[in-house]
Design a protein that fits this description.
seven-stranded parallel β-sheet; 9 strands; Rossmann fold; 37% helix; globular; two-stranded parallel ribbon; alpha/beta
Length: 241
């Protein structure tokens, strides 16, 4: 497939997209160019006309854009709403205008309030409840996805990611027999590849590196996407795509 990747020049894109690019053709739409030599269109997620032009000729949408991380500042507040809510709405609208019917949204486990370690084995269908800026805007983004399904008949998979890391960083972070929520880049890419194929209304999936499921249930991803984290401490490349 030819994928329109919005926000592909950021941190997550840099570590994950090389694996996705091995299976699909990428067109990256971002304010800054990616480091890799993929097709690139410069633009802003607030520009509907630019998004429509970028979406033309693509088969699916992968939305990975991020706002400013200084959440207490005016820029942080406005950019997170602009990117995670308004920008996602415009991107999905642009996609459906040119006939794209499927999208994968890089959501976050931050849609849940408080420390996830305080919620062991929470149900995967537990309603998101975050009230902080980032978590709130990410869960509002999921509502935008649900609306696209109702309004335009699209299929949307929201992947609730937790701390994606390049493989060497993940290996340094993880310890054998110690629960870790962080997710290797290869495992994130595998989830994205599976989510690009699965199409059934709006679905949200827990995607973490907690391979022993000490804290996180990921049965839904296993059942519907055929996905589970494969990275293991001391076994570099175990999650290779």
């Amino acid at each position: 497939m030819k994928l329109l990747v919005i926000g592909g020049a950021g941190y997550v894109g840099a570590i994950v997209l090389p694996f996705v690019a091995a299976r699909h053709t990428l067109r990256v739409f971002d304010r800054q160019p990616p480091t890799a030599d993929w097709e690139y269109l410069q633009g802003d997620v607030g520009d509907l006309d630019a998004l429509v032009r970028a979406a033309a000729g693509c088969d699916a949408l992968l939305y990975m854009a991020m706002g400013d991380k200084n959440y207490a500042t005016n820029l942080g507040i406005t950019s997170n709403f602009d990117v995670n809510v308004k920008g996602l709405y415009l991107a999905l609208d642009a996609a459906q205008r040119v006939g794209i019917g499927h999208a994968v949204y890089a959501s976050s486990m931050s849609v849940y309030q408080h420390n996830l370690e305080d919620r062991p084995h929470q149900a995967e269908d537990l309603p998101p409840d975050a009230s902080d800026l980032y978590g709130l805007t990410k869960r509002l983004g999921e509502e935008v996805g649900r609306n696209a399904v109702r309004a335009w008949g699209m299929s949307i998979n929201a992947l609730r990611l937790f701390l994606p890391m390049a493989e060497p960083d993940w290996q340094a972070f993880a310890r054998d027999h110690t629960p870790t929520f962080a997710t290797s880049a290869e495992d994130v890419a595998r989830a994205m590849l599976a989510a690009l194929e699965y199409r059934d209304g709006f679905q949200a999936f827990t995607i973490t590196g907690d391979y022993a499921q000490h804290h996180m249930h990921m049965e839904k991803a296993r059942r519907l996407l055929g996905w589970e984290p494969l990275a293991r401490p001391g076994m570099p490349g175990a999650a290779a795509v």
